[in-house]
């Protein structure tokens, strides 16, 4: 296919590289001619590197290099009659700039050329609405770096022709990436799904449940995420993350589940963006540890102290035989708090602590303490949990503990995406694994833990906090009640 890529910045050059390597002819254009020249050298250098590393042959790289053409204007009319079949736009993220570009392209190119925008936050429908023929434009949302990030969101606007969606899906799939079709909604699929983790991470910070290094350690070790939420925001840039959080929340008319925290605004104003400004949640640069901060060690506890447990999940931690009066009491916190267990079951507050059952069987144990827990009980409980060599993170008591709350939020947001029909359930899981790098898609993940357990968790959170952000979605509630996997599509209705 002959593809014109307009905008030769970070994304445009990545898209050009991906397309020439997949065998397409690419015309590259930009408002700044020097940007085209830089992008062509960049793609050539990447192709050379691929040859050096043995990832591609010399002949293949030469063919791809020859297939990359520099244009001196986005509107250049083809002299030889070889008009591009598709234009992919990757210019400044501004509705006016994009709309003006497409109206100019509509005048310059034949009616058979179709258009795609790589916008990450604007409405595809609004960009297309300025065209005489809005049916010829769709969203084609790539991720950075394009050659490595295999996911591409294909986004039909309200007026987009079905044949264009089919063409783009086939183009992406035949060129080695994975297309997912997503409704034209704020954040599309990946940026919407990603809100589950970061908004809940901020909620935990707002409630002083734990510091950000502890939350990140729990996210990595208990949930198996490659990066904790704060480490991830430092990489993405808090300015970018905060703006996506606001766009998605505003776009969905302040849906409680997506409510952002008050915390990022001042951090952004102070330039604490993350890696790019060398300071974010962590400090970066020479001699700084970044997210690999040394972990605080809690020493001096009695690993042999007697333990009584109140739930079968913790049976392995109980001392055998009769337990003395001063035994520690460990309660499993599944959507519940230690404080509630103390009150409901008449437990001794000064030596009752919570253990997150989700952390058992993972590389880290998570222990919850209340304002009534005595210091010796905390030390001894840490020593007991660390007996098998696992690190222990101590957090403040909250319904559901850290990992459960993060997971519940990820699942609830994902099921909200499914029930709004924004994407097919299987595509949600695929997009989250490829686009966000989670170990599992949120729907499959919830099924592994048990959708009924996730539902119980959210209900307990909603009840204890009274906060509607924890209201479970009907998608989750109904599938859990029916014993169906969360990936079960909507019921089809008779025509
Ligand atoms: P960038 O600043 O690196 O590149 C933008 C390029 O567009 C520049 O070379 C600029 O000269 C050119 N340009 C600006 N106005 C133009 C015009 N009217 N006509 C022709 N060229 C023009 O930006 P980027 O990060 O590559 O982002 C481009 C688009 O891709 C944006 O819409 C952005 O939201 C989207 N996007 C970015 C990312 C990302 O991670 N960077 C990811 C997905 C989507």
Structure explained in plain terms:
- The protein has 495 residues and is of the alpha/beta class.
- It folds into three domains: 2-184, 3-Layer(aba) Sandwich (Rossmann fold); 190-291 and 403-488, N-(1-d-carboxylethyl)-l-norvaline Dehydrogenase, domain 2 (Orthogonal Bundle), CATH 1.10.1040; 307-390, no CATH class.
- Helix content is 42%, strand content 12%.
- It is built from 19 helices and 13 strands.
- Strands 3-2-1-4-5-6-7-8 form an eight-stranded mixed beta sheet.
- α2 (33-52) runs antiparallel to α3 (58-66), α15 packs across α17 (442-449) and α15 (401-419) packs across α18 (451-465).
- The longest helix is centred in the N-terminal third of the chain and has 20 residues, at 33-52.
- The mean pLDDT is 96.
- The site of nicotinamide-adenine-dinucleotide (NAD) has 24 residues, from α1 and α4.
- Nicotinamide-adenine-dinucleotide is lined by residues 6-12, 30-32, 35, 74, 90-93, 97, 101, 118-120, 142-144.
CATH class of the largest domain: Mainly Alpha
Largest sheet: 8 strands, mixed
Instruction: Quickly count the helices.
Output: 19
Strand content range: 5-15%
Distance between the termini: 38 Å
Low-confidence stretches: none
Compute the average pLDDT: 96
Features:
495 residues; alpha/beta; Rossmann fold; N-(1-d-carboxylethyl)-l-norvaline Dehydrogenase, domain 2; 3 domains; eight-stranded mixed sheet; five-stranded mixed sheet; 13 strands; binds nicotinamide-adenine-dinucleotide; NAD(P)-bd_dom_sf; 6-PGluconate_DH-like_C_sf
């Amino acid at each position: 296919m002959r593809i014109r890529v307009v905008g030769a910045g970070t994304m445009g050059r990545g898209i050009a590289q991906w397309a020439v390597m997949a065998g397409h002819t690419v015309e590259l254009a930009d408002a700044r001619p020097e940007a085209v020249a830089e992008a062509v050298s960049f793609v050539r250098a990447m192709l050379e590197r691929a040859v050096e590393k043995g990832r591609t042959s010399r002949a293949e790289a030469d063919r791809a290099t020859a297939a990359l053409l520099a244009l001196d204007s986005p509107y250049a009319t083809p002299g030889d009659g070889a008009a591009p079949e598709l234009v992919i736009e990757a210019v400044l993220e501004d509705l006016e700039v994009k709309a003006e570009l497409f109206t100019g392209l509509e005048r310059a190119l034949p009616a058979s050329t179709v258009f795609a925008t790589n916008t990450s936050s604007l409405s595809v429908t609004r960009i297309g609405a300025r065209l005489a023929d809005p049916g010829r434009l769709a969203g084609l949302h790539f991720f950075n770096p394009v050659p490595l990030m295999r996911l591409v969101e294909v986004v039909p606007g309200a007026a987009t022709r079905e044949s264009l969606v089919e063409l783009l899906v086939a183009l992406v799939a035949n060129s080695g990436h994975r297309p997912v079709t997503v409704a034209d909604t704020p954040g599309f699929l990946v940026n919407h799904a990603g809100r589950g983790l970061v908004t809940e991470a901020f909620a935990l910070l707002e409630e002083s449940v734990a510091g950000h290094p502890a939350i990140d350690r729990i996210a990595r070790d208990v949930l198996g995420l490659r990066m904790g939420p704060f480490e991830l925001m430092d990489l993405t840039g808090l300015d970018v993350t905060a703006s996506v959080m606001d766009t998605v929340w505003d776009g969905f008319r302040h849906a409680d589940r997506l409510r952002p925290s008050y915390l990022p605004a001042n951090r952004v104003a102070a330039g604490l963006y993350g890696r790019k400004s060398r300071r974010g949640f962590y400090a970066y640069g020479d001699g700084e540890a970044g997210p690999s901060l040394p972990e605080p060690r809690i020493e001096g506890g009695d690993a042999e102290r007697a333990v009584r447990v109140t739930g079968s999940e913790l049976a392995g931690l109980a001392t055998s035989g009769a337990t003395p009066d001063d035994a520690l009491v460990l309660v499993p916190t599944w959507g519940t708090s230690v404080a509630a267990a103390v009150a409901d079951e008449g437990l001794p507050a000064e030596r009752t602590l919570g253990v997150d059952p989700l952390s058992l069987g993972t590389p880290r144990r998570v222990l919850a303490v209340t304002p009534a827990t005595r210091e010796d009980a905390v030390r001894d409980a840490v020593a007991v949990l660390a007996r098998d060599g696992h690190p222990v993170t101590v957090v403040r008591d909250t319904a559901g503990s850290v990992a459960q709350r993060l997971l519940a939020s990820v699942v609830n947001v994902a099921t909200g995406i499914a029930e709004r029909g924004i994407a097919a359930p299987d595509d949600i899981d695929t997009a989250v694994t490829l686009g966000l790098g989670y170990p599992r898609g949120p729907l499959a993940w919830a099924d592994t833990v048990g959708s009924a357990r996730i539902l119980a968790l959210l209900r307990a959170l909603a009840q204890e906090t009274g906060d509607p952000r924890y209201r479970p979605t009907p998608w989750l509630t109904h599938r859990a009640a029916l014993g169906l996997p969360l990936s079960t599509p909507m019921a089809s209705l008779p025509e």
